[in-house]
Input
Amino acid sequence: MSETFFVTTALPYANGPFHIGHIMEYIQADIWVRFQRMQGKRVHFVGADDAHGAPVMLKAQAEHTTPEALVARIAADRPRYLEGFHIGFDHWHCTHSSENTRLSHDIYRHLRTAGLIDSRSVEQFYDPVQGMFLADRYIKGECPKCHAKDQYGDACEVCGSVYAPTELIAPYSALSGAKPVLRSSDHFFFRLSDPRCAAFLRQWLEQPGHVQPQVANKAREWLEGRDGRALSDWDISRDAPYFGIPIPDAPGKFFYVWLDAPIGYLASLQSYIDSGKARANGEMRTFEQLLAAPDTRQVHFIGKDIIYFHTLFWPAMLHFAGPPYRVPDNVHVHGFITVSGEKMSKSRGTGISPLRYLELGLNPEWLRYYLAAKLNATVEDLDFNAQDFVARVNSDLIGKYVNIASRAAPFVTRHFDGSIDYPAGTGELLDVAREVLEQVRESYAAREFARAMRQIMTFADRLNQDFDARRPWILAKDPTQRAALQDSCARALYGFKVLTCLLAPVLPALAERVARELLGLQRPLAWADALEPPRRIHPYRHLMTRIDPKQLDALFEPAGEIPVPTKTAPQTPSVEPAGSSGAPRTALTATQGAPAPPTLSIEEFKRIDLRVARIAAAEHVAGADKLLKLTLDLGGETRTVFAGIKSAYDPAALAGRLTVLVANLAPRKMKFGLSEGMVLAASGETGGPYLLAPDSGAIPGMRIG
Output
C-alpha cells in the first residue's frame, strides 16, 4: 500500500439542514473515496459540522435556545441524509470540540512565534440595538459604485464591486435596521501580506495537481492583487458576544469562524483516530504520525465559492505552523448545481430538497448515477433537468446495465443450473476487460466521472449488441447449440460483472446486492474482481426499477396546503393564513355539536416557521378581486406574497407595517406570479380580515414561537 488518503469535504454550516449542493459534493467525494478503496488504498474520509460564528449565535437567540443545543439538534439529523444517499464518511465531528480548540490554539501560537500575527486597532460598525459589532454580511446600504440599494457590506451583487463596509452609502444593520456607529477595537491579523507567505503560495500554486489550472489562475489573481495592490492581511478575530473559540491570552476575543473551520478537518481526523475507529480501517499510527508520514495525502473537496480560503489562507496557515501539520496535496473544486438552468432557490420553487427526495421513496442511486454522469474535473456548474434525469437513468441503468443480467441470467439458471462455462475461452474477454478497466480507472482517478460513465455505457452497448447478435433465445430452442448458448450468456454475464465493478463506486448498494445475491460473494467487490470471470450465479432477482416521471412531480410541486374547514364557529374569530389561497380562512373551533379539532404536539407546532416581516410595498393585482401583492422584508431577505385582504386594506396604508409570515410554507404558483408564503390575519362573523401585527420593538426576520 503506497498511499494513505485523508479526505474531507467542505464543512456544512450548523444552522440548517443539508441542501442539494452539500449532497452533490459529498457524493462526488464518496465516489472518489470508494474508487480508491477498490484500488486497495487506505482512505480516512471525515467530515464535521461548522458550528461557530454569528449566524449560529443569532439563530439560537431567535429560537430561545443555546448555540450548543441548536448545533446538537442539527447534527442529530445528519445521518438521515448521509445514510440515505449511501455517503460513507468514516467519522463525523463538530468544530465546537476540545480537539478543535486545542489545534486552533496550537496553530495560532506557532503562527505568532513565526511573527505572522499582528494586533492593531480597527474601526468597524457597531449595532447599538443588538449590542455587537457587525460582520460585513450584517451591514447593508447603497453600493458606492453603482448606487444599487440594499447591498451587503463587502460586495455588490449588482455590479460585483468589492469594498469596505465603511464605504457604503446610508448603511444600516441587517439585524435591527438601526444605523450602525463606528467604534474602535483591537483585532488580530494573520500577516498574509508577508513576503514569506506570498513566496510560499506562489510556489505551492505552481506545483501541478494541487489545484485545477483555472483555480490556480484565480488564486494568483488574488495573490498578486487587483490594481497592483498586495494581498491584504487577514482579520482572524471577533469581539464578544460571539460563539467561537476564545483566543489565548485575549479576554473577550474569539477566533473568526474561518480560522477554526478548516482546522475542523484536522480535529475530526484526530477524533476519529483517538476514538479507535481508525484501527478498523487498518490505521495504527497516531494523529501526529499520520500527518507527518510521507505516504499521506491530504485531499479536500470544496465548492468554487470558498476557493479564497482554501487556496490562500489554509495552505499558508498550515505551512507556517510547521510539523506535524502539512499543506493540502490536492484541493478539488467543483461548480454549483442548478435546476433546469436556474440558480437553486427555495422561494422560487427551483430547489431540490434531499430529504424530500428520500421521503418520496426515490432511489438514491438514481441521483448518484445522474450526478456522476455530469461531474467532471472542472469548476463548471452542473444542471439538474428532470426530463434528462428520467431519460438517462432509465436508458443507462435499466435499458443498458441491468438489462444484460435480466436477459442472460435466466438462460443460465434454466439450462445450466447456474453454472457458467466459457467454451471459447476467456483470453479475449480478459483482454477487453483490462482495456476497459484501465480507461475507466484513469477517468475515476482524475475525477472525470462523466467520462467514466460514458466509457462504461459504451462497454454496456457493446455487450448488448453482442448478446443480440448471438440470439440466445433462438439458440435455447436447439439442443445442438447448447455450447453456443452457454458461450453467449457467459460473455454477457462476465461483462455484467465487469460493469458492476466499474459502477460500484457510484452504485454501492446495488453492487453489493449483485455481489451477494447473484454472484454469491460475501464481501464487497474489489477492482481486481473484474478480472475473475464468474463460474456460477444464483437465480436472478429484480435489481432496479425504472423512474416513473410522475414520481418527480411531487419532488418539485409545493407541499399540500392546510385543509380548509367547511364549518366555522360563530362569533369566534381565529387566526389563519391570508396568503396564497386568496381570501383569509377561518379555523374550525370547538362549538356545540361540532367536534373539537385534534390537539397539536409542541414538536408539530415547531415545524411552522413564523417570522416577523415588514411590508415594504403593497399594490393592487390586475384582474384579482380579493388579492393584494405584498413585498415583505425579512431582515435581509425579500418575499412576495399574494394576500386576500383587498376588501379591508388600502395598499398605500400598508407600507412600513409589521406583520406575521408563515415562512416555511411551500411556494405556490398563481396566475399572477409566485406566492412565497402566507401572512396571518384574523376574521369572523363580526368582520375582518385583520392583519396580525407584532408588538413594537420586533425586528423583521425574528422567529415567533
